[in-house]
Structures are given as structure tokens and as C-alpha cells.
Amino acid sequence: MSTNRRADGSAGDADYGRIGEGYTSYRQPEPEFEAAIRAALGPARTVLNVGAGAGSYEPRDLAVTAVEPSAKMRAQRPADRVAAIDGTAESLPFDDDTFDAAMATFTVHQWSGLNAGLAEVRRVTRGPVVVLTCDPAALRKFWLHEYAPEAIDTEARRYPTVDAILAGLGGGSATSLPIPLRCVDGFGEAYYGRPERLLDPGARQANSAWSFVAPEVHERFETTLGNDLSSGAWDAKYGALRTQEHLDGSLVLIVSPG
Fold it and tell me: Of 48, 127, 180, 223, which has the maximum CB count within 10 A?
């Protein structure tokens, strides 16, 4: 299946050649998610990471093969990670049943052909396929929807449903993954109890949905949230989140056993 790849190779709807700069300053692997993914991979010895980005969540004790279409993201992979192959989920250059397991984290919503990509991942994987993603049905519960509905609505349109992912993989299970208060992987809900962080344009840039909203949305968001933080209005409504150890948000871990 062909894809409309951008200048730096980005194969989905987001242009990581433009928004990928500084990504790893805000998006680091969260240890709690890392542990959940590693447990789901089970006794695998070889693992394929599809849409591998800068290498977050790749187990250090396994033989990893990484596939990432964006040159900007491949260039941000740490020196202790394997170099990523330039490729897309929809056309993987591997034989059937090559890998013990496969993983895909915060990426399936970027794929230009979800079903084709999932079928390819299933084809080349003998055992479990583990997908970390967000449930679009749960996104609008987050307080950010009150301040920037355009960004949340964009995310909800882009993320495939959990049922669609499970169907594409041939079945499996989906489990809600609680988000810790000091989550170091700066996707939107990671800042549920630290709203000030989202006033940083870099933090928003590390979340691709914000690249689809107009500059005036960013400006309105900064003004409105900034004013509510200064006046205490945000804390009056959501202040309990500042000390809430975990949030049951939209994050889900999907495991298809193979």
C-alpha cells in the first residue's frame, strides 16, 4: 500500500519534519507504562517496534528491530538504541512470523492505513502484539476539552477505536492504563495535575493534535487557561487533580496474543 510521505518521510497526517524538533525534551518513556508494556511482551526475545519514533518503551533486554518513517524522529533516537529502519507499518520489509512479539506506542493514529498496518504487524509477528494508544471515546472527559475543544476533537477524530484495533489484530484484550501524576511522557493527559506545563508551546508541539489547530486557538488557550490559573478558577474546579496520584483517562494497552 502506498503512502503520501512528506519531505522527511512522515507517513501519517502529522508532519514530524516540522513539529518533531525537541520532541524528546518532552516525551520520555514513563516507567509505569514501560513496565506494563514489558510485561505484555512476555517471554519474547525478538520484538518489532512499529512507528518507533525516538525509541521510547523499547525493552533494553530484548533484540529490537525498529521501523520509523520520519527522518526527524529517527535522528532523535539515543545512541544506545538501535538505528531505525526507514519504513511504514503498511509495508513491512520482513518475512511472515519473523518476530516473537511486536509493539506500537502512540502511533496507530498516525498510520495512513490502519487495517493494512495492523495486518502487516500481525503477519510478521508470531506472538503478542502490544499497542499503547488512547481511546477516543474517553478523550473529552479531560479538562483540556473545556479550554481547547478543537485540539481534543482533533485527537478524537484521529485515534481509531479500540474495537477497530482489536478487529484489525484478530482479537485480544484492552486494559485501561492509569496515568501517574508526574508522568514523564508528555502527551496531553500527562499534565492533568500540572496545567501550567501546557502553557509551554514546546509541550503542545510534542502533541501532534496541536499542529492541526489554528494559531488563534493556541492564543485563546494560553489566555484563558493563564487567566484561570491566575484567578484560581482552574484550581477551584480541578485543583484536587494536583495531588491525585493517578488519572484513569483515555490511555489503553491493547494486547493481541497471536
Answer: 48
